[in-house]
Design brief:
2 strands, two-stranded antiparallel sheet, elongated, mainly alpha
């Protein structure tokens, strides 16, 4: 005799419902026991009947198994909440990596490398970018050159002022020496006026003959 397929719906007859509950409960408890013994699993089974009667099975300790289940539930819930944040970080890292790769490609093209796969429009854009960069470099160079000239002019003014100070200081130190030199000099007039005539018996010329 072929056994018919049981329909998954509530059994209306109370007696049949109770009999079915008892059979299925015993079978479930047996399967839980076999699972714990054969597979060395930590099994905890809790069943409440429609009348509120409790039936339970635990391979070790019901309380320890329930606490373990609660810890696992909290950890799983925390992990699920943190997963979107990790996904966002992974997406940001992937975006940054793509940006870096794109910059590296652009850098190589600006250096004249890897241009074989570039289209005419891309080459034209690279040329325009290089022209703008060259203009910016020239403008910056002109500004730096102008600043250096201004600095040299300021330095020239400073050196000129220092030179003028040194010259004045030298002249101040030279004036007392000139005064002492003027006091020690004797005028030619004084030298002439101090000349005296002195008569002597000295005769310059041939000797005179003496009379006998």
């Amino acid at each position: 005799m072929v056994r018919g397929k049981t329909q998954m719906r509530r059994i209306e007859n109370a007696t049949s419902r109770q009999v079915t509950f008892s059979k299925r409960r015993n079978g479930l408890l047996k399967k839980a026991f076999e699972l714990s013994v054969l597979c060395e699993a930590d099994v905890a089974l809790i069943i409440f009947s429609s009348t509120g009667k409790l039936c339970e099975f635990a391979s070790s300790s019901m309380q320890a198994t329930v606490e373990r289940f609660q810890r696992h539930t909290r950890e799983t819930h925390h992990l699920e909440r943190s997963l979107p944040h990790h996904h966002d970080q992974a997406d940001q890292a992937a975006t940054l990596l793509k940006g870096i790769e794109s910059l590296e490609v652009s850098k190589r093209k600006l250096l004249g490398q890897g241009l074989g796969s570039s289209s005419y429009e891309e080459l034209q854009q690279i040329q325009q970018q290089l022209q703008r960069s060259l203009a910016h470099v020239r403008a910056t160079k002109h500004e730096v050159y102008k600043e250096q000239i201004d600095q040299l002019k300021e330095k020239e003014k400073y050196l000129a002022a220092e030179n003028e100070k040194l010259a004045k200081k030298y002249l101040v130190q030279l004036e007392p020496r000139q005064s002492l030199t003027q006091v020690g000099e004797v005028s030619p007039y004084l030298e002439t006026s101090l000349t005296f005539d002195v008569e002597t018996d000295l005769f310059i010329g041939p000797p005179k003959s003496r009379s006998k």
